[in-house]
Structures are given as structure tokens and as C-alpha cells.
Amino acid sequence: MEMCEDVYRACVSCPSHSAELYSCVQQYLITHLYDISEEIVKGNLLKSYYQKWKVYQRGAYCLDHAFYYFNMLCLEKWRIHIFDLYKAQLVCLILAEIESDRNGNFVDPSPVKGAIDSFVYLNPPLSAPLLLYQQAFEAPFLEVTSQYYSKEAALFASERDFTAYMIKALKRIEEEEARVRKFVDLSSYSKVLEECERQWITNQLASFEVEIKNYLRKGDDEALSVLYSLIKRVPPLVEPVSSRMLNYLSEEGLVRGSPGHSDPVTPVDYVDFLFSMRSNYLALCRTAFENNAYFIAAVDKAFRVVINATNGERHLSKSPELLAFYCDAFLKKSSRNPVNYDIDEKLNKMVTLFEYLDEKDVFLKFYSRLLAKRLINSTSSSLEAETQMISSLKQTCGNDYTAKLESMLTDIGTSEKLSVAFRKYLCDHRENTFDNFRIVVLGRASWPIAAQQPFPQPPSVLKQVLLAFEKFYVSQHSGRKLQWLPYLSKCELRMNYLPRRYEVQCSFYQMSILLLFNYKDTVSIEEGALLDNTLATLINAKILAWSGTPAQVVLNKRFSRARGGGKFKLPASIGETENQKDASKATIDAVITDRQISLQATIMRIMKTRRKIAHRQLLSEVASQTSLRFKPAIAMIKKCIESLIDQQYLARAADFTDCYEYIS
């Protein structure tokens, strides 16, 4: 305290002695520093420098509050007479100590850290912050760091497998993080780690891209976790490495699961494989890749590629058809379906994969036809399950997508009530009927069916019931017209003329022929392709036989079945079998036709709104508006535009060749 007062009095006294005081202190410091310089070189330079600097720094702090300029003078003189004199040697020694620490030797951090801190503390007051530190130490330190790890990483990569390399890289980077905190100024932290990561990680990008496929193929989750721990340190590397995962998953899915690139697969196996594969890789994204958005997106993109894959023989993917048949497999009554199977699990699998479909219109076409079969033939396991399925589709694609499916369910409910009312009507009018007689009335606009075959003259016993229903229906719904669809009918007959009682399930056409034998054993059959095919199935089943007289058939009263019970089903006629084989092709043809109609309607809606539009903009808007159901090919859109021009709904603009105008 007394020293401070003496300095204060000297500074404010008159006349002023500040200049004399400054000069004396300066001379003292110079003399003192010469003595320090001689003492430093006598011992270990690094440790002596550190010890003398600590004492000198404390002295400078004591003078700081008394006279700031003396403090600056102290630092300046140390920088000129000590630091500049030993700077090159100090930097070499510091770098050598840090390298020794990297090599696993024990290094006392205090002298190294203290010397480096002096580089920061001695920065000239009018220069940029940390300029002296950056020029004198940081620049050579970063260069040495780059050389050290470049050599070490290259040597280790050549001698060891990549898994060992990654473990070593992660360890060395973590060690360097601790080393930077222990020795150098924190302003260098990110720069040093960036250089270290560049040598250990960035320069090995090609190896990361190759090895991620190998680890995925082997299912080495631990190695994948280490791999991600490294590449996440260099964010620009995450995207290219995740792209390699996308390529691998696409290839694996196409080889093992895609119907377009492998042998035929069953719908259940196809869905189970893809769903399991997707679930496994999403779980991998959670555990190994920390739910990184790039890797999750890679899984999604890969499965979109797999599910929408086509081959040279098909312009459309097979996946929509397989998904539709998968739904049919668990929604249809079958001995293969457990009584208490979890429908929610099945729906979840289907909807999850359905969302990847680009060709949702193809799925809808197949699904609606299979739904129609289940509802008409009463083979649906549960109407509640059917409703739940349609609700799931509605949530994904909207009301328009499922409107016809909902109408089909409504028609079935209405038909059940109608059948009950008709049976009551027959009882009230004391007319004959069949046991379990059921009629389904279908709305033409909603059901994917057509009157493909002629309606033959039914047997008299059946004709009475059909005429009665027409009369009953017209009384309930005047103005409506019924069209019978016999090819969709299913019949059961009892064969009462044999010693053993048999029940046969058959088609309407087979029943029409068999009922002719109710009152006589021999019947003359007219010629006709449909009758010939149907008759052939009955003769092949040995229920009927040729009598020897042309066009005459007799009832086989010696019919018996060596195997099976008393209830059996007749095979479909040749014509019906051919229709089943061609159903897939016919469905695809119908989809293409529907797409052309949909595209033309979309083009007309856009043109009515725009009146005039450029070619590219029209293509873009049409593709955008139809993307929810399918992704149209540009060639198909152009073909529809040309068709509308030929029909004079559109015209090319006279002033611009790449524009179209709406013709009102």
C-alpha cells in the first residue's frame, strides 16, 4: 500500500517526475530481464522459461493497478528481449512435447500450457486478437498435426481391417479432444479437431462408402454404430454414406423381394419380407444411426424403389396386385387364417407398404375386383374387417378413392335386407322357393363387373323364382331395370338318386344342365361353345355320360367318389378358367384405359381454368394433380393432349408453338 502511495505522489507531484519514473523502470526491467535470460539458458529451457514467466507475470500484475503503461511496458519488453529471442526454439519444444504426449509418453502439462498462454498474453495491444498466438504457434501446430495424423492414419489403414481402423480413429480423435483442452488455447479447439477428423475420416470417405455395404450385408450393428459415430463428426459426409445405404437396400430388396426382379413370390411372403426388412432397417436407424434424417430417408427411398420396380415385360409394377391379393388372403374365409388372428397387425403391414405405392390406381382396381368376389360369394371373414380396411385406405387417399368400395358394402347390406323381405314375400304369396335362396343386387356404377356371358333359359323351377323376384323388386323400386349375371352365381344341388347322398357345388350353367335331369334320365343338348364347355366338366366329373346317340346325354346312376366326403365342388368350365387366367391382364388393360380417361379429364379441367397454358406447365400440373393415384408417364400425357387436339377440344396457340388454347 505504501509503495502505491509513493508511486501516486511521484506521478502527481509538481514538477512531474512521470517521464523520469517511466525511464527508470524501463531501464530496471531491461537489466532484470538480461539477468533472467542468463538464468533461463542454464537449465531446461522450457521449464526455466515457464518458471521465470510465472514470477515475472505476478510482478506485472502487482504493477498493473499502479500504472497500466508500466504493465504494457513489461509485456512489450518481455516480448522483445525474451519471447522474440527464444520463440522459434520454444515452438519446436512445445510441438515436441505435444507429439510425445500423442505417442503415449507422460508430459507435464503446466510448462507447455503456461508457455502457450504467454503467446496469447503477449499479443500486441493494437493488433488483432490472438494474432501473435495464431502466427507464432497455431499455424505451425496445425501443420504438424496434419502431418502426424496423415501419416498415422494411412499406416494404420494399410495394416489393419477397417473395423479396427474405425475404432482407432474414434479413440485418437477423443484423445486429441482432451489434449487440446489440456494444452492449447480453446480458440484452436475446432481447428485442431477439424484437421484431425480430415485425416482420419474425410480422407477415408471412399472406404466408408464401401464398408457400410459390407456391414449391412453382415448385419454388424456394432460396426455401423462406430461408423456413424465417426461420420457424424463431419456432417457433409452423412449424405453420401447414407446414399450407399440406399443403393444397398434397393439392390437387396430387388433381388430378394421384388416380384419384378426375381422368381414369383406369394403375396403373403412378399409383404412379410418387405415389412420385416423395413422394420429391421428402421430399428437400425434408431440404434446405430441415432434416427438421422438422411438414413431414415434412405430406407424410405429404397423401399419406394423396390415396391415400384418394374421389369422389361411389364410397364407397371407387380406390387399393387400382390398387395391386393395379400388383403384378400387375410380378409377371406380360409382354413389358413387362424380364428383369432390380429387383423390390426395385417392392416398395419399392408397400409405401411401401400403408402410407398406410386400406382395406387392399380391396387384399387385389383382390390375392388377381389372385394366384389368376397362379397358376392359370401367368403369375407368379417364385414367389420372389410370396413376397417376401407377406412385405412380412406385415411391415406381420401374419400374419392374409397367411394365405390363403400357403395359395394352398402349394396351388400341392402341385399341382405332385400333377401329377407323377398323370402317373406314368397311365403305370403305361397310360392315355392329354394332353401337358403339369396340374391345380391349390385349397382352398375360401383361394382367392377360386366355381363360377359349370355343368360341362358333357366330351368322352369328356377325361372318361377326369378320372375317372382323381378316382380317383387319392381314393386319396391319402380323404374329400375334388373340384369341377371349368372356367371357370378353359386349353386348347391343334392343328388338324391344315388345310394349315397352327395351335395355338389356348381356354377349356374352347370346347375341349369343338371336340373334338366330332375324328370328324365336322357336329355338332348343343343350345340354352343358355352354349353359344350360346361357339359364337358360334367362328363369329366362322371356325373353325366354320352348316350351313344349324337347330342344326347344320360345321367350316370353309378356315380361314386372313391375319396372325399359327400360334399364336393365341380371344377369351373374351360371358359371360366380362361377368364381367371386372363383376369390380371384384363385388369391392367382396364387401368391403362382409366388412366387415359383420367388424364384427359384433368387436362380439360386445367385448360378450362387457364384458357391458355405453356406445354411444360401443362405437363407439370397434370402430373401433380394425378400423383395421388399414379405417376403418369410424360409420353402418356402427350398422347392424351394430341388426342384432345384431334377431337378439337384443344388447339396449339398461333402466336406460340409451345402453348395450348382451350376451344370453348
TrEMBL record:
The protein, known as: Cullin family profile domain-containing protein
Gene3D superfamilies, A to Z: Cullin Repeats (1.20.1310.10), Cullin, Chain C, Domain 2 (3.30.230.130), Winged helix-like DNA-binding domain superfamily/Winged helix DNA-binding domain (1.10.10.10)
Domain Cullin family profile: 318-527
Family matches, as Pfam families: Cullin, Cullin_AB, Cullin_Nedd8
GO biological process: ubiquitin-dependent protein catabolic process
Top-level taxonomy: Eukaryota, Metazoa, Ecdysozoa, Arthropoda, Hexapoda
Matching SMART domains: CULLIN (SM00182), Cullin_Nedd8 (SM00884)
Keyword line: Isopeptide bond, Ubl conjugation
Record-linked InterPro entries: Cullin, Cullin-like_AB, Cullin_CS, Cullin_homology, Cullin_homology_sf, Cullin_N, Cullin_neddylation_domain, Cullin_repeat-like_dom_sf
Gene Ontology MF terms: ubiquitin protein ligase binding
Family, similarity comment: Belongs to the cullin family.
Protein species of origin: Zophobas morio
Gene Ontology CC annotations of this record: cullin-RING ubiquitin ligase complex
Source taxon at top rank: Eukaryota
